[in-house]
Structures are given as structure tokens and as C-alpha cells.
Amino acid sequence: MARKTIFILLILSSLIFHDRSFAQEIMVEPLSGINTPVNSELAPTMQDSVLYFISNRRTNLLVTYLNQDDELLYRVFQAPLKEDSTIGKTTLFAPPDQPRFNAGPLTFSANGSFLIATHNKSNKTGTRKKNESTNPLSLYIAEKKNNGWPRYQELQLNIPGRSSAGQPSLSEDGRLLFFVSDMDEGEGGTDIYVSEKKGDQWSTPRNIGKHINTAGKELFPFIHPSGKLYFTSDGHQETGGFNLYYIDWQDSDARPVALPEPINSFSNDFSCYISNDEKWGFFASDRDGDDNIYRFTLPQMNCSDPQEVVEDNYCFTFFENGPFKSDTLPYIYRWNFGDGQQARGLEVDHCFPGPGNYLINLNVVDTLLNEDLFSVASYNLKLEKTRQIWFEVPDTIQTNEPFQMVADPIKMEDLATDPVFWWKMGDGENRIGRNIEYQYKTPGNYQISCATKLDDGRVVCYFRNIIVVDPQED
């Protein structure tokens, strides 16, 4: 980032994606009307078609409040997102009852009935620098009443008094709260924690694990309705700097995936919001010198000739119409399949163990002498896997039952470098990534397709069908 700040912005090279043809199709542009010169804008989030973000721009010409580094404190701002995707007028979001000083990132419940925001614990911050004291951050909750936000109350999360907590993100069902803290028990400077709502209480925070948290800093978690956790980190790349990642946070064997260029860059890229369909989003970056907010849109892959995923079958029926059909003759056919297995008869069934080159021999055998009389046929059988994007889905699944899919390109030597896989779930939802977790909310018959690009720019896609049932209708 462009300047040093307090914990809110303690976040503020090499990249995982190098598919240049794909990267050039991703549109990234700064948000006009939002970003201001010299000041910082970051931590975007959306609620009811309104963009919320934080900035340290001056809001009061008569009183100036500074943090411990003599920097302007942060405030939350809001701006409507218009139907044409442009941004409306920016105004200060400052409910009268919110804590007085530093205001950091916030998150809303899915129905907008309550919010959780980041604020300083103390309202005694002075107007000048005070090296002798600190003012940790904490999370505050407020319920919406009569279009207002009265009675901000600090969340009781059992966090040590001198530790900070901030940058919250609520799951779609409002049950899980992800946030960042600098508690001593963490893996590094700041870690991501999760707390579960049980009744009217929140559970003691749990560190979400070493597969996400590193010796560096993990910041700005954003839990997507798809179940993926997006976050910022400087600990997953050896060259340092902040990048944006996503991961299946519940899978301890999963590894974070960096967002592609030009979303990630050689600058610090952090604090993202991703749309429900994952076609567009916002993020912050200091690539132009100051911390600014950018919008990105992802290209959509449309396949004109989808192919159904094929279950490779290596079982065959072999037969021979030879002269020795009489039961009175002491001759039989013996098949040698080249895989260590044999069979006898005019017609036999055999399953090979898998792909490979097999030498098939058919001999006429004298059963009295148990000797081969002569060879009828000998030929090579080459079995290969089908060229396709292989993935598995259940034939039938219940609504709200999660399942996973993994894109496995087979015999695609011409695949683009570091390919991106696009999924259409058949219900209007799309996903991006090699590993996908999904659940259907409505019963029906759906076609799931997975597409990617070859190195010559062509798009290939494959599909499977799935039946989703409502367990209550059984």
C-alpha cells in the first residue's frame, strides 16, 4: 500500500496464473467517482445494490482526528451501483450511534437486518499522535431499525484485551463470522479466524488453519455464497507482496489459488468483493501509487458443441466364426489377451485392467494333447482414455446437499498453460476453478458443464446430467 496505517491496514513476484491470452480478456478498471488523489479507498463490499468502502479522506474541516501515525482516521462511505453498472454519488455512512473514531471494514447479513463493523475499542483517541498508548480494534454489531442503525454493541468473542479484531465477513446463512486478528496464538502477524453463531452468542474464535494462515499476514476474508473463502495474503508467495486468493477453507488438504492476472499484479492487491455468479467484482490495489478500488469483469466461455463426459469401458466381447463348431471334435479356441488372462470358446467376454497396448492371440487347441495346433489370429489392441474434461457428479442428490467436482483434463496436451475452468451449473449459477463445491437449492434435472481453453484459443466443454430431489417430497 502507499502509506503506513494502523491495524485496519496492516495489510496493507510471482503469480500462479500465466495464461496471457486469458489474462488479456479480464477487464480491470479503476472506479471513477470513488477514488480520490492522495487518499486511500479500499475494503469494498455490496449490500442492496450499494457499494460500501472505507477511506481516509477528510470529512470534517473543523476537527481532525489522527491515528497513532498522524494519519487521518478511516470512515465508511457508500455509493449506489446503478443499473448501467456506473457508480452514483458517494456519501458518508455514519450512523449517529456508531463508535466515534476509526471505522473499518464492515459486513451485512444477507437480508440486511444487521451489520458487523470494525471500530476502535476506545473513543478517547486524541487529535495528535500518542506513542505511549494503543487503541485496539474490535467488532461491533448493530441491528437495522426504521432504516437506521442504533445501538452499536461490541461483540463478545473472548479475544484478549490487547489484541485487535477486524475485517469481518458473514456467511450467507449468517451462521459463520470470519475476521482477522493479531492474537498471540496465531501463525503470523495477522490470521483469519472463524466464529459460529449459537443462539444469541458467538463461539470462541477458531484459527482456520495453517493451509491458509502463514507466518506472514492474512487479511480481508470474504466468504462467498459458493462456500469459497477469498482472502489477502503476503505469505503464499516467496517474493512477498499482497495477493488475492481463494480456497475451500474446510479442506485442510486444499491449497490457495491465486486470482489471475491482471487482478493480481506485482503491486499489492487486496480486499475483494466477488459477485454471486463470480462474473465480476471489486478489489483494492496500490498499482497506481495510492490505494484505489478497481472493478473487474471475467470473460465468459460459451461452447457451441458440448460433449457428454464418457465413462471409459475396457470390456469387450470377442468371437470367431471358425470351422471347428462340432462338439465331437477335440478342438477349441483359446484366447490370450496379453494381460496375463486367457479364455476358451467361440465367444468370450473380457475386461482389460485399463489403457495400454495388448497383444491378442487366438489359437486352435487340441484338447486331447493340450497343444496349440495353429494360430487363427494375432493382432495388437491399443486402448486409450477418451480425450475429455473428466469430472464426476452423483446421479441423484438432494437439495442443499453439498458435493464436489474436480476438473481432470485427459489427453489434452494442447491445453492452455495454467488453464482456468468455467462451470455452468444449469440453474443460472456459474463457478470458476479446478475444484468446485456446490449445492442445489431447487429440485430438478440439471446439466453441469465444464469448459476451458486450448492453447490456440478454442473453447472445449463437457457436460454431465444430475437429478436433484427434495427429500421432503419422498
Label the CATH architecture of the largest domain: 5 Propeller
Low-confidence stretches: 2-24, 125-132
Shape: elongated
H/I helix tally? 1
How many β strands by DSSP?
37
Whole-number mean pLDDT: 85
The level 1 CATH classification of the largest domain is Mainly Beta
Q: Which key features would you list for this structure?
A:
six-stranded mixed beta sheet; Tachylectin-2, Chain A; Immunoglobulin-like; five-stranded antiparallel beta sheet; 37 strands; mainly beta
What does this structure look like?
This protein is mainly β. The protein folds into three domains: 7-297, Tachylectin-2, Chain A; 315-383, Sandwich (Immunoglobulin-like); 387-473, Immunoglobulin-like (Sandwich), CATH 2.60.40. It is 1% helix and 42% strand. It has one helix at 20-23; strands at residues 27-30, 41-47, 50-55, 75-80, 91-93, 103-108, 114-120, 137-143, 153-154, 165-170, 176-181, 191-198, 201-202, 206-207, 218-223, 229-233, 243-247, 257-258, 269-274, 280-285, 292-297, 307-308, 315-319, 331-336, 342-344, 347-351, 356-366, 371-383, 388-390, 396-398, 403-406, 408-410, 422-424, 430-432, 435-438, 444-453, 459-469. The strands form ten sheets. Strands 22, 30, 33, 34, 36 and 37 form a six-stranded mixed sheet that branches. Strands 10, 11, 12, 13 and 14 form a five-stranded antiparallel sheet that branches. A four-stranded antiparallel sheet has the order 1-21-20-19, with no helix packed on it.
How is this fold's topology laid out?
Layout: H1 20-23, E1 27-30, E2 41-47, E3 50-55, E4 75-80, E5 91-93, E6 103-108, E7 114-120, E8 137-143, E9 153-154, E10 165-170, E11 176-181, E12 191-198, E13 201-202, E14 206-207, E15 218-223, E16 229-233, E17 243-247, E18 257-258, E19 269-274, E20 280-285, E21 292-297, E22 307-308, E23 315-319, E24 331-336, E25 342-344, E26 347-351, E27 356-366, E28 371-383, E29 388-390, E30 396-398, E31 403-406, E32 408-410, E33 422-424, E34 430-432, E35 435-438, E36 444-453, E37 459-469
Parallel strand pairs: 22-37, 30-37
Antiparallel strand pairs: 1-21, 2-3, 3-4, 4-5, 6-7, 7-8, 8-9, 10-11, 11-12, 12-13, 12-14, 15-16, 16-17, 17-18, 19-20, 20-21, 23-26, 24-25, 24-27, 27-28, 29-32, 31-35, 33-34, 33-36, 36-37
